[in-house]
Task: structure prediction
Amino acid sequence: MGAPRGEFSSRLGFILAASGSAVGLGNIWGFPTQAASNGGAAFLLVYLLLAFLIAYPALMAELIIGRHAKANAVTALRSISNDRFTYNLGSFTGYLGIATASVILGFYAIVAGWMFAYAMVPVSDLLGMGGFADWLTGFAVGRNLIFMTLFMFVTIAIICGGVQKGIEKWCTRLMPSLLFILVALIVYVLTLDGAGEGLKAYLVPDFSRIADPQLVISAMGQAFFSLSLGVGGMLIYASYVSDKEDIVSLGRSVTLLDIGIAVMAGLLILPAMYVAQNNGVAIYDAAGNLISEDTLIFAVLPALFETMGTAGIFVALAFFVLMSIAALTSSISMLEVPVAYAVENHGLERKRATYLAGGVIIVLSGVIILNFEALFGLAIAASTRYGQPLLGLLLCVFAGWIWHRDGVLNELKKGNPDAEQGPFWKIWPFYVRTIVPAAIIIVFVQSLR
Ligand code: PFF
Result:
Protein backbone atom coordinates (compact mmCIF):
# COMPACT_ATOMS: atom_id res chain seq x y z
CA MET A 1 0.00 0.00 0.00
CA GLY A 2 3.06 2.21 -0.37
CA ALA A 3 1.87 4.08 -3.46
CA PRO A 4 0.73 7.65 -2.68
CA ARG A 5 -3.02 8.21 -2.87
CA GLY A 6 -4.47 10.23 -5.73
CA GLU A 7 -5.80 13.74 -5.17
CA PHE A 8 -7.81 16.10 -7.37
CA SER A 9 -5.59 18.93 -8.55
CA SER A 10 -8.16 21.63 -7.85
CA ARG A 11 -11.54 22.51 -6.42
CA LEU A 12 -13.00 22.58 -9.92
CA GLY A 13 -11.56 19.13 -10.65
CA PHE A 14 -13.55 17.65 -7.79
CA ILE A 15 -16.71 19.59 -8.64
CA LEU A 16 -16.64 18.41 -12.25
CA ALA A 17 -15.85 14.81 -11.29
CA ALA A 18 -18.51 14.60 -8.56
CA SER A 19 -21.13 16.38 -10.60
CA GLY A 20 -20.11 14.11 -13.49
CA SER A 21 -20.96 11.17 -11.27
CA ALA A 22 -24.24 12.76 -10.24
CA VAL A 23 -25.31 13.96 -13.67
CA GLY A 24 -26.12 10.87 -15.68
CA LEU A 25 -28.87 8.95 -17.37
CA GLY A 26 -30.83 9.59 -14.17
CA ASN A 27 -30.93 13.32 -14.90
CA ILE A 28 -31.38 13.40 -18.62
CA TRP A 29 -33.61 10.40 -18.99
CA GLY A 30 -34.95 9.38 -15.58
CA PHE A 31 -35.93 12.76 -14.22
CA PRO A 32 -37.83 14.15 -17.25
CA THR A 33 -39.65 10.89 -17.93
CA GLN A 34 -40.67 10.54 -14.27
CA ALA A 35 -41.85 14.15 -14.31
CA ALA A 36 -43.81 13.45 -17.50
CA SER A 37 -45.66 10.53 -15.96
CA ASN A 38 -46.12 12.05 -12.48
CA GLY A 39 -47.89 15.33 -13.00
CA GLY A 40 -45.11 17.52 -14.44
CA ALA A 41 -44.31 20.39 -12.11
CA ALA A 42 -45.95 18.62 -9.14
CA PHE A 43 -43.17 16.04 -9.43
CA LEU A 44 -40.60 18.78 -9.95
CA LEU A 45 -41.62 20.52 -6.72
CA VAL A 46 -41.59 17.37 -4.59
CA TYR A 47 -38.30 16.37 -6.18
CA LEU A 48 -36.69 19.71 -5.37
CA LEU A 49 -37.87 19.53 -1.75
CA LEU A 50 -36.66 15.96 -1.23
CA ALA A 51 -33.38 16.55 -3.03
CA PHE A 52 -32.47 19.57 -0.90
CA LEU A 53 -33.96 18.42 2.40
CA ILE A 54 -33.17 14.70 2.42
CA ALA A 55 -30.69 13.71 -0.27
CA TYR A 56 -28.31 16.67 0.14
CA PRO A 57 -27.77 16.20 3.92
CA ALA A 58 -27.19 12.47 3.34
CA LEU A 59 -24.69 13.28 0.58
CA MET A 60 -22.85 15.58 2.99
CA ALA A 61 -22.51 12.66 5.43
CA GLU A 62 -20.84 10.66 2.69
CA LEU A 63 -18.53 13.49 1.61
CA ILE A 64 -17.42 14.43 5.13
CA ILE A 65 -16.66 10.83 6.08
CA GLY A 66 -14.74 10.27 2.83
CA ARG A 67 -12.59 13.37 3.09
CA HIS A 68 -11.83 12.62 6.74
CA ALA A 69 -10.81 9.00 6.27
CA LYS A 70 -8.96 9.40 2.95
CA ALA A 71 -9.93 5.84 2.13
CA ASN A 72 -12.60 3.70 0.49
CA ALA A 73 -15.90 3.17 2.30
CA VAL A 74 -14.95 -0.10 4.04
CA THR A 75 -11.86 1.40 5.67
CA ALA A 76 -13.47 4.81 6.17
CA LEU A 77 -16.45 3.49 8.12
CA ARG A 78 -14.30 1.15 10.18
CA SER A 79 -12.08 4.10 11.08
CA ILE A 80 -14.92 6.08 12.61
CA SER A 81 -16.44 3.11 14.42
CA ASN A 82 -16.06 2.91 18.18
CA ASP A 83 -16.61 -0.71 19.14
CA ARG A 84 -16.76 -4.18 17.69
CA PHE A 85 -20.38 -3.90 16.60
CA THR A 86 -19.98 -0.59 14.79
CA TYR A 87 -16.73 -1.83 13.22
CA ASN A 88 -18.59 -4.79 11.74
CA LEU A 89 -21.46 -2.53 10.71
CA GLY A 90 -18.90 -0.35 8.92
CA SER A 91 -17.51 -3.36 7.04
CA PHE A 92 -21.02 -4.47 6.15
CA THR A 93 -22.00 -1.02 4.87
CA GLY A 94 -18.82 -0.71 2.82
CA TYR A 95 -19.25 -4.13 1.23
CA LEU A 96 -22.93 -3.54 0.56
CA GLY A 97 -21.91 -0.28 -1.18
CA ILE A 98 -19.42 -2.14 -3.39
CA ALA A 99 -22.07 -4.73 -4.28
CA THR A 100 -24.70 -2.07 -4.97
CA ALA A 101 -22.35 0.05 -7.12
CA SER A 102 -21.47 -3.06 -9.13
CA VAL A 103 -25.10 -4.02 -9.70
CA ILE A 104 -25.99 -0.45 -10.70
CA LEU A 105 -23.10 -0.47 -13.18
CA GLY A 106 -24.30 -3.90 -14.35
CA PHE A 107 -27.58 -2.50 -15.67
CA TYR A 108 -26.31 1.01 -16.37
CA ALA A 109 -23.67 -0.28 -18.82
CA ILE A 110 -26.41 -2.01 -20.83
CA VAL A 111 -28.44 1.18 -21.18
CA ALA A 112 -25.31 3.24 -21.86
CA GLY A 113 -24.42 0.73 -24.60
CA TRP A 114 -27.76 1.50 -26.26
CA MET A 115 -26.83 5.19 -26.19
CA PHE A 116 -23.53 4.41 -27.94
CA ALA A 117 -25.40 2.35 -30.54
CA TYR A 118 -28.02 5.04 -31.16
CA ALA A 119 -25.30 7.69 -31.46
CA MET A 120 -23.90 5.71 -34.39
CA VAL A 121 -27.24 5.58 -36.22
CA PRO A 122 -27.15 9.12 -37.70
CA VAL A 123 -23.57 8.53 -38.87
CA SER A 124 -24.53 5.24 -40.54
CA ASP A 125 -27.54 6.92 -42.15
CA LEU A 126 -25.31 9.66 -43.48
CA LEU A 127 -22.96 7.07 -44.98
CA GLY A 128 -25.89 5.25 -46.58
CA MET A 129 -25.48 2.20 -44.36
CA GLY A 130 -29.18 1.66 -43.67
CA GLY A 131 -28.84 -2.04 -42.91
CA PHE A 132 -26.25 -1.37 -40.21
CA ALA A 133 -28.49 1.34 -38.72
CA ASP A 134 -31.32 -1.19 -38.49
CA TRP A 135 -29.06 -3.60 -36.66
CA LEU A 136 -27.99 -0.84 -34.26
CA THR A 137 -31.56 -0.08 -33.30
CA GLY A 138 -32.87 -3.66 -33.18
CA PHE A 139 -33.14 -5.13 -29.70
CA ALA A 140 -30.92 -8.20 -29.94
CA VAL A 141 -28.65 -10.04 -27.53
CA GLY A 142 -25.65 -9.65 -29.84
CA ARG A 143 -25.97 -5.89 -30.15
CA ASN A 144 -26.57 -5.51 -26.42
CA LEU A 145 -23.50 -7.57 -25.53
CA ILE A 146 -21.22 -5.79 -27.99
CA PHE A 147 -22.17 -2.25 -26.98
CA MET A 148 -22.22 -2.98 -23.24
CA THR A 149 -18.68 -4.38 -23.55
CA LEU A 150 -17.58 -1.41 -25.63
CA PHE A 151 -18.95 1.01 -23.07
CA MET A 152 -17.27 -0.89 -20.23
CA PHE A 153 -13.93 -0.80 -22.03
CA VAL A 154 -14.11 2.99 -22.31
CA THR A 155 -14.98 3.16 -18.60
CA ILE A 156 -12.08 0.83 -17.77
CA ALA A 157 -9.65 2.86 -19.89
CA ILE A 158 -10.47 6.06 -17.97
CA ILE A 159 -10.28 4.43 -14.53
CA CYS A 160 -6.90 2.88 -15.39
CA GLY A 161 -5.57 6.44 -15.63
CA GLY A 162 -6.20 7.11 -11.94
CA VAL A 163 -7.53 10.21 -10.21
CA GLN A 164 -5.85 13.08 -12.06
CA LYS A 165 -4.95 11.49 -15.38
CA GLY A 166 -8.17 9.53 -15.68
CA ILE A 167 -11.17 10.77 -13.73
CA GLU A 168 -10.30 14.47 -13.46
CA LYS A 169 -8.87 14.81 -16.95
CA TRP A 170 -11.92 13.28 -18.62
CA CYS A 171 -14.52 14.97 -16.46
CA THR A 172 -13.02 18.39 -17.11
CA ARG A 173 -13.31 17.69 -20.84
CA LEU A 174 -16.65 15.96 -20.89
CA MET A 175 -18.72 18.00 -18.44
CA PRO A 176 -18.40 21.35 -20.26
CA SER A 177 -19.21 19.54 -23.53
CA LEU A 178 -22.29 18.03 -21.90
CA LEU A 179 -23.48 21.40 -20.72
CA PHE A 180 -22.88 22.96 -24.12
CA ILE A 181 -24.77 20.27 -26.02
CA LEU A 182 -27.64 20.35 -23.53
CA VAL A 183 -28.07 24.13 -23.79
CA ALA A 184 -27.80 24.06 -27.58
CA LEU A 185 -30.47 21.34 -27.82
CA ILE A 186 -32.81 23.18 -25.43
CA VAL A 187 -32.50 26.41 -27.38
CA TYR A 188 -33.14 24.62 -30.66
CA VAL A 189 -36.11 22.57 -29.48
CA LEU A 190 -37.77 25.59 -27.84
CA THR A 191 -37.92 27.33 -31.22
CA LEU A 192 -40.03 24.52 -32.73
CA ASP A 193 -43.82 24.40 -32.99
CA GLY A 194 -45.48 22.61 -30.10
CA ALA A 195 -42.65 23.25 -27.60
CA GLY A 196 -44.77 25.74 -25.64
CA GLU A 197 -47.30 23.09 -24.77
CA GLY A 198 -44.53 20.88 -23.45
CA LEU A 199 -43.22 23.71 -21.30
CA LYS A 200 -46.69 24.13 -19.86
CA ALA A 201 -46.98 20.43 -19.07
CA TYR A 202 -43.61 20.61 -17.31
CA LEU A 203 -43.92 23.87 -15.44
CA VAL A 204 -47.61 24.17 -14.50
CA PRO A 205 -48.18 21.85 -11.53
CA ASP A 206 -51.08 19.45 -11.31
CA PHE A 207 -51.53 19.85 -7.53
CA SER A 208 -54.01 16.99 -7.31
CA ARG A 209 -50.98 14.69 -7.65
CA ILE A 210 -48.77 16.28 -5.03
CA ALA A 211 -49.73 14.12 -2.03
CA ASP A 212 -49.75 10.90 -4.06
CA PRO A 213 -47.49 8.51 -2.10
CA GLN A 214 -46.30 6.99 -5.36
CA LEU A 215 -45.10 10.39 -6.52
CA VAL A 216 -43.19 10.96 -3.26
CA ILE A 217 -41.59 7.50 -3.44
CA SER A 218 -40.53 8.02 -7.06
CA ALA A 219 -39.19 11.50 -6.34
CA MET A 220 -37.08 10.29 -3.43
CA GLY A 221 -35.73 7.32 -5.36
CA GLN A 222 -34.88 9.67 -8.19
CA ALA A 223 -33.13 12.15 -5.86
CA PHE A 224 -31.01 9.39 -4.26
CA PHE A 225 -30.07 7.85 -7.59
CA SER A 226 -29.30 11.21 -9.09
CA LEU A 227 -26.91 12.21 -6.32
CA SER A 228 -25.18 8.79 -6.62
CA LEU A 229 -25.92 8.34 -2.94
CA GLY A 230 -24.80 5.65 -0.56
CA VAL A 231 -22.74 3.32 -2.72
CA GLY A 232 -19.42 4.91 -1.82
CA GLY A 233 -18.58 6.62 -5.12
CA MET A 234 -19.04 10.08 -3.68
CA LEU A 235 -17.23 8.98 -0.53
CA ILE A 236 -14.18 7.88 -2.49
CA TYR A 237 -14.19 11.05 -4.65
CA ALA A 238 -14.31 13.15 -1.46
CA SER A 239 -11.37 11.14 -0.14
CA TYR A 240 -9.34 12.57 -3.04
CA VAL A 241 -10.10 16.17 -1.98
CA SER A 242 -7.37 18.21 -0.33
CA ASP A 243 -7.81 19.23 3.32
CA LYS A 244 -7.57 22.86 2.27
CA GLU A 245 -10.99 22.79 0.63
CA ASP A 246 -14.27 23.68 2.30
CA ILE A 247 -16.16 20.41 1.91
CA VAL A 248 -19.54 21.98 2.73
CA SER A 249 -19.34 24.44 -0.12
CA LEU A 250 -18.09 21.72 -2.47
CA GLY A 251 -21.08 19.53 -1.59
CA ARG A 252 -23.42 22.44 -2.16
CA SER A 253 -21.99 23.14 -5.63
CA VAL A 254 -22.27 19.51 -6.68
CA THR A 255 -25.89 19.28 -5.47
CA LEU A 256 -26.87 22.51 -7.22
CA LEU A 257 -25.25 21.42 -10.47
CA ASP A 258 -26.92 18.03 -10.35
CA ILE A 259 -30.38 19.38 -9.64
CA GLY A 260 -29.93 22.26 -12.07
CA ILE A 261 -29.02 19.91 -14.91
CA ALA A 262 -31.99 17.63 -14.15
CA VAL A 263 -34.32 20.62 -14.28
CA MET A 264 -32.71 21.75 -17.55
CA ALA A 265 -33.10 18.28 -19.04
CA GLY A 266 -36.83 18.60 -18.36
CA LEU A 267 -36.77 21.75 -20.49
CA LEU A 268 -35.46 19.63 -23.33
CA ILE A 269 -37.38 16.35 -23.09
CA LEU A 270 -40.92 17.52 -22.37
CA PRO A 271 -41.01 20.22 -25.06
CA ALA A 272 -39.43 17.70 -27.47
CA MET A 273 -42.30 15.29 -26.81
CA TYR A 274 -44.89 17.89 -27.70
CA VAL A 275 -42.95 18.95 -30.77
CA ALA A 276 -43.07 15.28 -31.76
CA GLN A 277 -46.82 15.27 -31.27
CA ASN A 278 -47.08 18.40 -33.35
CA ASN A 279 -45.19 16.53 -36.10
CA GLY A 280 -47.59 13.61 -35.99
CA VAL A 281 -45.74 11.25 -33.62
CA ALA A 282 -47.94 9.58 -30.98
CA ILE A 283 -46.89 10.57 -27.47
CA TYR A 284 -49.76 9.03 -25.50
CA ASP A 285 -50.18 5.29 -25.06
CA ALA A 286 -53.43 3.38 -25.46
CA ALA A 287 -54.36 4.08 -21.82
CA GLY A 288 -54.01 7.83 -22.40
CA ASN A 289 -50.77 8.23 -20.41
CA LEU A 290 -47.72 10.05 -21.73
CA ILE A 291 -45.27 7.55 -23.18
CA SER A 292 -42.21 7.38 -20.95
CA GLU A 293 -39.13 5.34 -20.15
CA ASP A 294 -37.44 3.41 -22.95
CA THR A 295 -40.19 3.89 -25.53
CA LEU A 296 -39.80 7.65 -25.15
CA ILE A 297 -36.04 7.67 -25.69
CA PHE A 298 -35.77 4.93 -28.29
CA ALA A 299 -39.01 5.36 -30.24
CA VAL A 300 -40.64 8.77 -29.72
CA LEU A 301 -37.48 10.89 -29.90
CA PRO A 302 -35.94 9.05 -32.89
CA ALA A 303 -39.33 9.41 -34.65
CA LEU A 304 -39.17 13.13 -33.89
CA PHE A 305 -35.62 13.40 -35.27
CA GLU A 306 -36.80 11.72 -38.47
CA THR A 307 -39.46 14.36 -39.00
CA MET A 308 -36.78 17.07 -38.86
CA GLY A 309 -35.05 16.23 -42.15
CA THR A 310 -31.30 16.87 -42.37
CA ALA A 311 -31.28 18.88 -39.15
CA GLY A 312 -32.65 15.76 -37.46
CA ILE A 313 -29.46 13.84 -38.23
CA PHE A 314 -27.36 16.34 -36.28
CA VAL A 315 -29.90 16.72 -33.50
CA ALA A 316 -30.04 12.93 -33.09
CA LEU A 317 -26.26 12.72 -33.00
CA ALA A 318 -26.02 15.54 -30.44
CA PHE A 319 -28.71 13.97 -28.28
CA PHE A 320 -27.19 10.49 -28.09
CA VAL A 321 -23.67 11.87 -27.65
CA LEU A 322 -25.06 13.89 -24.73
CA MET A 323 -26.55 10.72 -23.24
CA SER A 324 -23.30 8.80 -23.76
CA ILE A 325 -21.20 11.48 -22.05
CA ALA A 326 -23.62 11.67 -19.14
CA ALA A 327 -23.46 7.89 -18.73
CA LEU A 328 -19.68 7.72 -18.93
CA THR A 329 -18.87 10.32 -16.26
CA SER A 330 -21.25 8.39 -13.96
CA SER A 331 -20.02 4.90 -14.76
CA ILE A 332 -16.42 5.77 -13.94
CA SER A 333 -17.45 6.74 -10.41
CA MET A 334 -19.20 3.39 -10.00
CA LEU A 335 -16.18 1.41 -11.20
CA GLU A 336 -13.89 3.42 -8.91
CA VAL A 337 -15.73 1.95 -5.88
CA PRO A 338 -14.50 -1.68 -6.19
CA VAL A 339 -11.21 -0.54 -7.73
CA ALA A 340 -10.28 1.75 -4.82
CA TYR A 341 -11.13 -1.04 -2.39
CA ALA A 342 -9.02 -3.61 -4.25
CA VAL A 343 -6.06 -1.21 -4.49
CA GLU A 344 -6.18 0.07 -0.91
CA ASN A 345 -7.18 -3.03 1.00
CA HIS A 346 -5.63 -5.79 -1.07
CA GLY A 347 -2.59 -4.04 -2.46
CA LEU A 348 -3.53 -4.67 -6.11
CA GLU A 349 -1.94 -2.50 -8.74
CA ARG A 350 -4.54 -0.03 -10.17
CA LYS A 351 -4.59 -1.36 -13.74
CA ARG A 352 -4.94 -4.94 -12.61
CA ALA A 353 -7.68 -3.98 -10.13
CA THR A 354 -9.53 -2.06 -12.84
CA TYR A 355 -9.47 -4.93 -15.32
CA LEU A 356 -10.49 -7.37 -12.62
CA ALA A 357 -13.45 -5.30 -11.34
CA GLY A 358 -14.42 -4.25 -14.86
CA GLY A 359 -14.27 -7.88 -16.01
CA VAL A 360 -16.54 -9.03 -13.19
CA ILE A 361 -19.05 -6.31 -14.08
CA ILE A 362 -18.97 -7.21 -17.79
CA VAL A 363 -19.83 -10.79 -16.83
CA LEU A 364 -22.61 -9.58 -14.53
CA SER A 365 -24.00 -7.34 -17.29
CA GLY A 366 -23.76 -10.22 -19.74
CA VAL A 367 -25.79 -12.45 -17.42
CA ILE A 368 -28.43 -9.71 -17.17
CA ILE A 369 -28.53 -9.37 -20.97
CA LEU A 370 -28.95 -13.13 -21.43
CA ASN A 371 -31.82 -13.18 -18.91
CA PHE A 372 -33.14 -9.74 -19.66
CA GLU A 373 -36.80 -10.27 -18.79
CA ALA A 374 -36.04 -11.83 -15.43
CA LEU A 375 -33.02 -9.83 -14.31
CA PHE A 376 -33.00 -6.30 -15.72
CA GLY A 377 -35.88 -4.94 -13.65
CA LEU A 378 -34.74 -6.96 -10.65
CA ALA A 379 -31.22 -5.46 -10.75
CA ILE A 380 -32.67 -1.94 -10.90
CA ALA A 381 -35.10 -2.57 -8.03
CA ALA A 382 -32.58 -4.35 -5.79
CA SER A 383 -29.93 -1.67 -6.15
CA THR A 384 -31.95 1.55 -6.34
CA ARG A 385 -35.17 0.80 -4.43
CA TYR A 386 -33.61 -1.20 -1.61
CA GLY A 387 -29.81 -0.83 -1.70
CA GLN A 388 -29.47 2.93 -1.98
CA PRO A 389 -32.04 3.98 0.66
CA LEU A 390 -30.61 1.44 3.12
CA LEU A 391 -27.08 2.64 2.48
CA GLY A 392 -28.14 6.30 2.77
CA LEU A 393 -29.70 5.46 6.12
CA LEU A 394 -26.58 3.65 7.36
CA LEU A 395 -24.34 6.57 6.36
CA CYS A 396 -26.55 8.97 8.31
CA VAL A 397 -26.33 6.63 11.31
CA PHE A 398 -22.54 6.68 11.04
CA ALA A 399 -22.29 10.46 10.64
CA GLY A 400 -24.99 11.29 13.19
CA TRP A 401 -24.75 8.61 15.88
CA ILE A 402 -21.50 6.66 15.68
CA TRP A 403 -18.82 9.18 14.73
CA HIS A 404 -17.96 11.53 17.57
CA ARG A 405 -19.33 15.06 17.10
CA ASP A 406 -15.91 16.61 17.70
CA GLY A 407 -14.47 14.49 14.92
CA VAL A 408 -17.07 15.80 12.48
CA LEU A 409 -16.49 19.41 13.51
CA ASN A 410 -12.70 19.08 13.24
CA GLU A 411 -13.13 17.74 9.73
CA LEU A 412 -15.32 20.68 8.73
CA LYS A 413 -12.88 23.16 10.27
CA LYS A 414 -10.01 21.95 8.08
CA GLY A 415 -11.25 23.88 5.07
CA ASN A 416 -13.22 26.50 6.98
CA PRO A 417 -11.92 27.55 10.41
CA ASP A 418 -15.20 29.33 11.17
CA ALA A 419 -17.33 26.25 10.46
CA GLU A 420 -18.62 26.12 14.05
CA GLN A 421 -20.37 29.46 13.65
CA GLY A 422 -21.83 28.71 10.22
CA PRO A 423 -25.45 27.71 9.54
CA PHE A 424 -24.44 24.24 8.36
CA TRP A 425 -23.08 23.24 11.77
CA LYS A 426 -26.14 24.69 13.53
CA ILE A 427 -28.59 22.59 11.54
CA TRP A 428 -26.98 19.60 9.90
CA PRO A 429 -25.78 17.46 12.89
CA PHE A 430 -29.25 17.30 14.41
CA TYR A 431 -30.85 16.96 11.04
CA VAL A 432 -28.71 14.02 9.89
CA ARG A 433 -29.30 12.26 13.24
CA THR A 434 -33.06 12.48 13.22
CA ILE A 435 -35.03 13.97 10.34
CA VAL A 436 -33.14 12.39 7.43
CA PRO A 437 -33.13 8.80 8.80
CA ALA A 438 -36.79 9.14 9.80
CA ALA A 439 -37.76 10.40 6.35
CA ILE A 440 -35.83 7.62 4.63
CA ILE A 441 -37.54 4.99 6.79
CA ILE A 442 -41.02 6.45 6.24
CA VAL A 443 -40.67 6.62 2.46
CA PHE A 444 -39.02 3.20 2.35
CA VAL A 445 -41.79 1.53 4.36
CA GLN A 446 -44.39 3.23 2.17
CA SER A 447 -42.68 1.89 -0.93
CA LEU A 448 -43.02 -1.70 0.37
CA ARG A 449 -46.78 -1.49 0.67
N1 PFF B 1 -26.17 9.65 -10.55
C1 PFF B 1 -26.21 8.81 -11.70
C2 PFF B 1 -27.36 9.23 -12.60
O1 PFF B 1 -28.15 10.09 -12.22
O2 PFF B 1 -27.48 8.67 -13.69
C3 PFF B 1 -26.33 7.37 -11.34
C4 PFF B 1 -25.32 6.86 -10.35
C5 PFF B 1 -23.96 7.15 -10.51
C6 PFF B 1 -25.72 6.10 -9.28
C7 PFF B 1 -23.03 6.67 -9.61
C8 PFF B 1 -24.81 5.62 -8.37
C9 PFF B 1 -23.46 5.90 -8.55
F1 PFF B 1 -22.58 5.47 -7.70
The CA atoms of residues 339 and 353 lie 5 Å apart. The pocket of 4-fluoro-L-phenylalanine is lined by residues 21-22, 24-27, 101, 104, 225-226, 228, 231, 233, 330, 333-334 (CB under 6 Å).
